Amino acid sequence: MFSSLEHQAGSVPPRVDELLGAGHDVVGLARSDASSASLEAKGAQGRRGDLDDLDSIRSGAQDADAVVHLANKHDFENPEASNKAERDAVNAIGAVLAGSNRPFLLASGVTGVVQGRPATEEDPSPFHGPDSPRGGSENLALEYAQRGVHTVSVRFAPTVHGDGDHGFMAALVGVARERGVAGYVGDGSNRWSAVHRSDAGRVVRLGLEKAPAGAVLHAVGEQGVPGRQIAEAIGRGLNVPVASIAPDDAFGHFGWVRMFFAADIPAQSTITQELLGWAPTGPTLIDDLDGGSYFRA
Question: TM segments (predicted)?
């Protein structure tokens, strides 16, 4: 199995542990020798490359029985570059797997799928084309299901939390530490769906093993945690005050993460749980924050 992860050195994603524990042989895309070594220490193999190295991606896909594509540049100051890299990678993998019926599982997100209610797996992604978020990669990958690729999309909650998380939650803690205040936007009623890293890893593994071609899964453990509760937990962890940040001031306070933290992003995973026989068992987001791992020096 070839997994495009682009993980940070010393922080092998739990999806690798989950796949290895289930008996899969894993080859992971690694940006550095240190990343490759951390994969090998777990019992996987490392293949040097990144999302711009399409030859390495094609070669890895060609040699694999299945491809798990979870990487993204997440360059929020240059989204065009992230979108292009994501779209190019999906096309490279899809072209190699076309006609083989081999599994191709890719990461997407629940953000922006619907407005005003929790997103479900039956809601189609509204993002099409190279100029859309993530380059419209979910719809692009699902098109390959019509070309003999066993495509499965896993939409992740905006926060995949737990030890080793370098994503949005770590960014929010960093802002609060720098500003000396844990902020929320407006009245803080907007919600973030959430999932623990261990639960997300099981969705990836079960989705690879059990989901039918064309399936859309939700790696979501909690339907929606209010922004104010998140800020209050960060405030407790850092021992700093908690305060409302006016929407007009939010970008200046939070920086790039404001575009996500100000959004209402609830989502359900009922269909995924029934299809895969999966249920989230990891800590909740607030329990994870109260556990202290985000606040260690």
Answer: none
